[in-house]
Structures are given as C-alpha cells and as structure tokens.
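Structural prep section.
Before we set up the soaks we want a predicted structure of the protein with 2-acetamido-2-deoxy-beta-D-glucopyranose in place, mainly to decide which crystallisation condition to try first. Input record follows.
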Amino acid sequence: MLCGLLVLVSFTVLTWSAPLLSRAGHGCVETPLRFTSDGTFQISIFEDLHFGENAWDEWGPQQDIDSVTVMNEILDAESQQLVVLNGDLITGENTFTSNSTLYVDQIVGPLAERGLTWASTYGNHDSDFNLSRYDILGRERLYRNARTSQMVFGNDSGVSNYYLPVYPSNGGSEPSLLLWFFDSRGGFHYQQTDANGDKIGQPNWVDQTVVDWFQQTNAALVDQYNRTIPSLAFVHIPVNASQALQTSRGIDPNHEPGINDDYPLAAQAQGWCPNGTTGTGSACSYGGQDLPFTQALTSTPGLIALFSGHDHGDTWCYKWNSTLPGTTVAGNGLNLCFGQHSGYGGYGTWTRGSRQVLLTEGLLEQVETWIRLETGGVVGRVTLNETYGVDRYPATVDTRSECVGCSYDVVSDMPGTA
Ligand SMILES: *[C@@H]1O[C@H](CO)[C@@H](O)[C@H](O)[C@H]1NC(C)=O
Ligand SMILES: *[C@@H]1O[C@H](CO)[C@@H](O)[C@H](O)[C@H]1NC(C)=O
Ligand SMILES: *[C@@H]1O[C@H](CO)[C@@H](O)[C@H](O)[C@H]1NC(C)=O
Ligand SMILES: *[C@@H]1O[C@H](CO)[C@@H](O)[C@H](O)[C@H]1NC(C)=O
Ligand SMILES: *[C@@H]1O[C@H](CO)[C@@H](O)[C@H](O)[C@H]1NC(C)=O
Ligand SMILES: *[C@@H]1O[C@H](CO)[C@@H](O)[C@H](O)[C@H]1NC(C)=O
Ligand SMILES: *[C@@H]1O[C@H](CO)[C@@H](O)[C@H](O)[C@H]1NC(C)=O
Ligand SMILES: *[C@@H]1O[C@H](CO)[C@@H](O)[C@H](O)[C@H]1NC(C)=O
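Run finished without errors. Recording the tokens verbatim:
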C-alpha cells in the first residue's frame, strides 16, 4: 500500500521521470530481494559519486554527465540484482538549499531506467548546511525501486541504518543472506550554525544507538531462524582497523590486490577527540568512537565483509584475522574492503569504476568480487574465502581516467615505473 502511494506521489512530483518509473519492472520495496534461478546474487557498488559540484561552472555539471556515463557503462557490462550507493552521493558543500536533493534524480536515473533496485548509505558529504540526509532519503523514496530506509531513530543515529534480507531462489521464505547498511554520518548539520556563525560538525562514526540496534536485531534474527544467516555490511567511512592494517601490516599487491594510494587512509572518528568534541584547531587525530561498532562487527558470526568508500585512492580488500598492535579489538576473519571511486566529482583521477560482489547460494564462504572499470576492463578479481590473504593474485595496475591536462606526472604515479 505504501509502495503504491509512493508511486502516485512520484508521478506528480517527478513529471520528467514518470515514463522511467512506469517502465521500472521490479523492485517495489515490497518485493523481496531473491537469488536468481541460477542461484546467484550480484551487487554493483557505486561510491563517492559526488554529484552537484560547482553548478555555476561548466565542469561541475559536465562531471555529473560523465558520472552518469560511468554508471551506464558499468550497468550494461554487469548483471546485477542490486545496486548499492555507498555514500557521498552528493557534494553538499557545493549545493543550494532550494534544490540540493534534485541531484538524486540524476543519480538514480540510470537505475530507474533499467528497472534496477538500489540501497544507499549516506556519506559525510551528504550532510551539509544546505543538504540534509533526511531529505535525500525522502527524495529517494519517491522512487518505488529505492530500498534505502531508516530503522534507527535516535537524534544522533544518522539516517541510512537498516537491513535487507535476500531470499533463496527456490521461493523459500527464510533469508539466505542479510545485507546491513550503516550510517557513519560526518559533514555538517543541516541549516545550523554556532554562535560564531560557523557550520556545526556532525560526528563521523556509527553511533552507539545503531550498534545496539544492530546487535539486538541480529540476535532476534538468529533466534527467529535458529541459525546464523551469512551477511555483508556497507558503510561509507571505513573503521580505524582498516588504517591499522594498512600501516602496521601493509597491503601486499599480490595478496590484497588494489590501489593503495590514500596512505594513511581516513577513517571513522578521525579529527575528533575522545571527549566527543573536535577540540580547537587540529587538537585530536582520532577519538576511538568507532570501537563499539568495530567490536560489534567482529563479534557477529557469519558477517563476511564490510564494504566502504570515502578513501578514493584505496581499492583493496584485507582479511582481518588477528590482533593489531595498539588495538583492543581482534579480527575474526572479517574482510574489510574498499570499492572504486565511481564519480567524476570528488578528489582524484583514478580510473572510475565499481566493485562487483557475486554471491552463490550454498557457497557463501566463497564470495567473488572484482572491480569493473569504466574503460571496460576488470581488475582485482579475488575470492573472499578462508585462504584470502594467503592466495596469490595479479597486482592491480594503478591507472587514471584521463591524463589530458592532469596536474600529476602520470608515469611516476604508476607503481613499478618510478
Ligand atoms: C540548483 O540551482 C542552481 C542555482 O540556481 C543551479 O545552477 C543548478 O543547476 C540547480 N541544480 C539542480 C540539480 O537543479
Ligand atoms: C546555501 O544555499 C544558499 C542558497 O540557497 C546560498 O546562498 C549559500 O551560499 C549556501 N550556503 C552554503 C554554506 O553553502
Ligand atoms: C532529540 O532532540 C530533541 C530536540 O533537540 C530533544 O527535545 C529530545 O529530547 C532529544 N531526544 C533524545 C532522545 O535525546
Ligand atoms: C535449533 O537448531 C538446533 C540445531 O542447530 C536444534 O537442535 C533445535 O531443535 C532447533 N530449535 C528449534 C526450536 O527448532
Ligand atoms: C576535549 O578534549 C580536547 C583534547 O584533549 C580538549 O582540547 C577540549 O578542550 C576538550 N573539550 C571538553 C569540552 O572537555
Ligand atoms: C588506529 O589506527 C592506528 C594506525 O593507523 C593505530 O596506531 C591505533 O592503535 C588504532 N587505534 C585503535 C584504538 O584501534
Ligand atoms: C580460495 O579461492 C582461491 C581463488 O579461487 C583458490 O585458489 C583457493 O583454493 C580457495 N581456497 C579455499 C580454501 O577454497
Ligand atoms: C592471517 O592472514 C595472514 C595474511 O593476511 C596470514 O599470513 C596468516 O597466516 C593468517 N593468520 C591466521 C591465524 O589465519
């Protein structure tokens, strides 16, 4: 019923996209996600699309057009059942109050056009003085193919915290897989300024209310189905453990293939003090507030991997299987993965692309994943199984989208050629 209502609203508000919506084949929020008849389920992750930069220039709108082209090329090259928009859909510091969420229409255009269904997490750039992540959700929900929702309602919980069950191909009503979506917040509060007239920062970690909801909801599901259901998780900003793995263990190009240019990477709770303020100036580098979330992740049996964006120059997966120096949380084999910078907005010129995740029913301990580039190629194809981290793979070549007028030296930027 709610779904029908949303479609009606969308026809009146989004006049231009009405034909797209009427062609949208599946994905009404009431239609469950399901493994296909060949027993697979594929996810395409777009992250850091950063729509809406410099609307007043020529290059801003042009890079949004280029980002839509990236999405079209990747969607055509792959056969996905779900698209995940893993944060920083829009660059909020560049947008105007009156129309900042209209960029959602451009972003989901290629999805609605194909009848694809999608689920978002929001990133730090999705909250700013002129952009509200609540309003992004509202705009998304005008489309019947949107599965993004909000399941935690604390003042400080963020918005995009929810889960989606994926059901078996045989029509069964017990989920085969759970997809968890977490909101790592960040950016600035909507239409709020402090006594000095400055924008007010929003904490950049997954809130304790969300951690509590995750653990309670997961426990209830384990109870209901009397078993552990395998799961994947998505969050925009990675946890500090990713940085600790990167700096203390090192990313091996043949064991964790991927670009590793953002070093050290930016993680949750960066720039915040342990007391929950940002201090003055750059008083604190890391406040530790992501530890309850991290602890919850590693103590959730069946959680196979966490996928993040945020660090455009990192694209690897690391199997975290041990205690790290200086940390209290021990890895349990959880894979911490980045995808690929998908948008022309945002920093960096790494070849745009999208991480693919292919799950096979009954074989969820062998998750296949690779990065499809806008140029058509595939890099970093690995299997996240028991021996990931030990298995040998070809290294990923560090390529850039375009070099005409690039400000960097393309040759010395390529590993192995300097
Ligand atoms: C929003 O408004 C600005 C200023 O009028 C304009 O340049 C921009 O194209 C608009 N963006 C959208 C998505 O409509
Ligand atoms: C917010 O948008 C208004 C117009 O809607 C614009 O005048 C202002 O500069 C923007 N503010 C910020 C902080 O981006
Ligand atoms: C949430 O914020 C509102 C408005 O600032 C406040 O009245 C309310 O007490 C807050 N609720 C919680 C649970 O903190
Ligand atoms: C739960 O599963 C266990 C085996 O894993 C079984 O022994 C038990 O009977 C099950 N309980 C219910 C209520 O089905
Ligand atoms: C929080 O901690 C930082 C760093 O130690 C300090 O600069 C700041 O004054 C503290 N703020 C409060 C409100 O305690
Ligand atoms: C956070 O990561 C850094 C390495 O980048 C590490 O030194 C530190 O111990 C980590 N902190 C925690 C609490 O995990
Ligand atoms: C994991 O996958 C790799 C690549 O397909 C394969 O070589 C390896 O044998 C697999 N390990 C296990 C334990 O199945
Ligand atoms: C943990 O993974 C590393 C490679 O990432 C591997 O060398 C090591 O043997 C693994 N340790 C355990 C206990 O599985």
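Observations: The pocket of 2-acetamido-2-deoxy-beta-D-glucopyranose (ligand 8) is lined by residues 319, 321-322, 389-390 (CB under 6 Å).
Flagged for discussion at group meeting.
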